[in-house]
Structure formats: C-alpha cells, structure tokens
C-alpha cells in the first residue's frame, strides 16, 4: 500500500490490540445506516461489535476492514463465538459474564479461526481467560482510571449509586450534590489530558490533527452523559466506571440479537487492509452502507478529501455513510455537496440520543 493510502499506518503501531471493544453505540449506527436486506456494508473493524451488529439487519455482505492483525483476530474470535457457542457461553467467553471455563470455550471456538487468528490467540490464552473485552490498550487505560483515579474522586457506594435509575431532575440533584466535587473536576481533566490519553489510552500520533485542549471537552461531554442521559441505560459508562456491564449491554451482546447475528455470520468478510487502500480499489457503485467509525480523526484534511471521493465513487446512489468526530472536526468537502447530502436532523437527533458520549459530533450522510 502506498503512504497516501495508509497514512496512519506509517505513524502509529498497529501490531497491538488497541480496542478490545467497539466504543461507538451500535444502536446509533443502525438507526443511521437504515440497512436494507441484501445491502453491501463496509465497516471499520476495530473491536468488532459494530460489524457484527450490522449482520442483524440481514445485509447481503458486511466487509470488515482493519489494518491491524490484532484487531482482526479480535473480531474473528467474537464471530467464532457466535458460530460455535450458545448465547450464555458467548457472554462468558468474551467476558460479559464471569466464567472459569473460558479456556474450554475458546477451544470450541478456535476451530473457526483462520491460522493467523489461531496463532494470535494461542499466544494470548491468559488474556482470554481474564476476559477478552478488557484486553485492549484503551480498556487498560480505563482500568487504570478505575483502580487509581476514581477511588480518589468518590467512594464505592457513590459510584454504585450513579447507576441507579433516576428521573432527569433526580440525576441533576445527584450530580450537583454528590458527584461534582473538586476532585472529580480536577482529576478528570488531568487523566483525560492529551498527554495521558495519548500515551496510555490511544496513541500520541492519533492527536496529530487535533487542535486545542483535549481534556475539557471530554469533561463537559462526560458531565452531560451523567445528567442528560440515564447512566443506568449506558453500558459504556458502566464499563468505564466498574469494568463490567451492570444494567445494560451493547447491541451485539443482547440475547434478542444473538440469533439474527449468528444466522448471518457467514456474510461477514474480514479484510486485513487499510480503509484507504480498500476503498481506493473497490468497484464503482459496489457498496450501499459505510460504517466509517472515526477514521477521519487520524488522517490529514487532504487524505480525508481523497477518502470521501472514493466513497462517492464506490458508493451506490441512495446509500448512506455514518461517521464520528471526537476532537478533529471532519466533514464531507463542500465540492461534493451535490453528491453527498448530510441528514442534519437525523444526525443531531441520534447524537443527542447516543450512549457513546465522548464524541463531539455524529454525521449521517446520503449518497445521491
């Protein structure tokens, strides 16, 4: 692949497992893309849950792309779990529920892995036994937060009380009276600073195109998530604070979605390639839906424009794309306005409803 086609690969290490989970709300993504039976879907692989969730809408194919062998191995193992295990067993294997038999469950799923994925997980068996969903660098960052920072902010009873169901007014009172102390404000901005988030959670190079302060916007959005939405219904907040899901699950792990995903699992195709390279080589008009994650966050404005051009070329008319901004503002170039239309009202509504609170914007666009 050329340097232009894989810009971020030249600047950051993708040999490690960065994300053991998808940190973008699949419910939001599914509502945005409005997948129709038979659609060809393109999806950034990442932790895998969102690519799996797309299968529940009976597409013709889901092409999951990632340039990291570790990320693809993560998705492969989750897909193998859908193929070979019952729903309760799958939740044990990935670490949603406690288990003392993850090694045995892995052996049953292992036969559905490619040789490369088997080699990866055979060398990470202790990680599987500890629970797959906690293995990524990003998840370890939150583990450090739970172990060393959160106890300095609040007692365990206060943390547990955060996830009790409350009305909007009750959440406001709880936040004002029990949660929003000076330690929360100060330590949150310290721990989610550009330096610590870059070195411990993501990668310093992921912030190359981010201007301005990093911690303050995250703090503001987190505070809103604790009050405007209901933490009792937010699985991502629960994992960050407690290291497990308490009263809510992401879409892919819910019992009511298990059979639909499993029945379509053979329609999942996993590719080890960069997003830029894959879309540059895709046939014209060959893809209906695009889950682009926050891919534009990591590449230059010029590379973003080229990527949008390829999406317009290989996307079918009437198709949709969805993507997130976290810190770096990215939009479709204005010169493509006649070919890509932003669904502003839908984008705003879904952004307000989503459980993944740390992003600054969410965009749904339609191809003409």
Describe the structure.
The chain has helices at residues 26-33, 49-54, 69-84, 87-94, 102-110, 115-122, 125-130, 137-153, 156-162, 168-179, 182-191, 194-201, 215-227, 235-242, 255-263, 275-281, 301-314, 344-353; strands spanning 40-44, 61-66, 268-272, 287-291, 315-325, 340-342, 361-367. With 368 residues, the protein is of the alpha/beta class. Among the domains are: 69-132, no CATH class; 137-242, no CATH class. The longest helix is centred in the middle third of the chain and has 17 residues, at 137-153. Mean pLDDT is 91; it is low at 1-5.
List keywords for this structure.
globular; alpha/beta; single chain; 368 residues; disordered N terminus; 48% helix
Q: Short summary of the structure?
A:
This protein has 18 helices and seven strands.
Largest sheet data: 7 strands, mixed
Query: Low-confidence runs (pLDDT<50, min 5 residues)?
Result: 1-5
Average pLDDT, all residues: 91
Strand order of the largest sheet: 3-2-1-4-5-7-6
Termini distance? 30 Å
Instruction: Find the structural class using helix and strand composition.
Output: alpha/beta
Order of helices and strands: HEHEHHHHHHHHHHHHHEHEHEEHE
Fraction of helical residues: 40-55%
Q: What's the tally of helices?
A: 18
Tell me the strand percentage band.
5-15%
Total number of strands: 7
Radius of gyration: 20 Å
Which secondary structure elements does this structure contain, and how are they paired or packed?
Elements: H1 26-33, E1 40-44, H2 49-54, E2 61-66, H3 69-84, H4 87-94, H5 102-110, H6 115-122, H7 125-130, H8 137-153, H9 156-162, H10 168-179, H11 182-191, H12 194-201, H13 215-227, H14 235-242, H15 255-263, E3 268-272, H16 275-281, E4 287-291, H17 301-314, E5 315-325, E6 340-342, H18 344-353, E7 361-367
Parallel strand pairs: 1-2, 1-4, 2-3, 4-5
Antiparallel strand pairs: 5-7, 6-7
């Amino acid at each position: 692949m050329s340097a232009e086609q894989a810009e971020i690969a030249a600047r950051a290490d993708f040999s490690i497992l960065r994300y053991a989970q998808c940190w973008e709300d699949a419910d939001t993504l599914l509502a945005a893309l409005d997948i129709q039976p038979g659609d060809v879907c393109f999806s950034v692989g990442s932790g895998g849950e969102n690519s799996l969730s797309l299968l529940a809408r009976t597409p013709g194919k889901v092409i999951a792309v990632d340039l990291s062998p570790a990320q693809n191995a993560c998705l492969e193992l989750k897909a193998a779990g859908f193929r070979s295990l019952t729903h309760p067993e799958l939740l044990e294997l990935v670490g949603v529920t406690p288990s003392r038999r993850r090694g045995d469950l892995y052996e049953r799923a292992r036969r559905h892995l490619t040789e490369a994925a088997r080699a990866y997980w055979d060398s990470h068996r202790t990680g599987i036994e500890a629970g797959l969903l906690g293995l990524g660098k990003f998840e370890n960052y939150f583990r450090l937060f739970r172990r060393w920072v959160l106890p300095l902010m609040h007692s365990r009873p206060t943390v547990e009380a955060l996830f009790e169901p409350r009305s909007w007014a009750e959440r406001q009172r709880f936040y004002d009276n029990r949660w929003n102390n000076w330690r929360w404000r100060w330590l949150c901005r310290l721990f989610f600073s550009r330096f610590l988030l870059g070195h411990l959670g993501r990668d310093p190079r992921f912030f190359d195109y981010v201007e301005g302060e990093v911690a303050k916007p995250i703090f503001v959005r987190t505070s809103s998530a604790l009050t405007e939405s209901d933490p009792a219904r937010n699985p991502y907040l629960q994992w960050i604070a407690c290291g497990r899901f308490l009263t809510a699950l992401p879409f892919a792990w819910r019992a009511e979605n298990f059979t639909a995903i499993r029945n379509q699992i053979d329609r999942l195709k996993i590719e080890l390639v960069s997003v830029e390279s894959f879309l540059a080589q895709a046939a014209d008009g060959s893809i209906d839906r695009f889950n682009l994650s926050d891919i534009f966050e990591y590449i230059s404005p010029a590379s973003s424009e080229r990527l949008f051009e390829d999406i317009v070329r290989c996307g079918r008319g009437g198709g949709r794309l969805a993507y997130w901004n976290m810190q770096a503002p990215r939009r479709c170039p204005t010169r493509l306005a006649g070919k890509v239309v932003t669904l502003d009202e839908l984008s705003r509504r879904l952004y307000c409803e989503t459980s993944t609170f740390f992003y600054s914007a969410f965009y749904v666009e339609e191809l003409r």
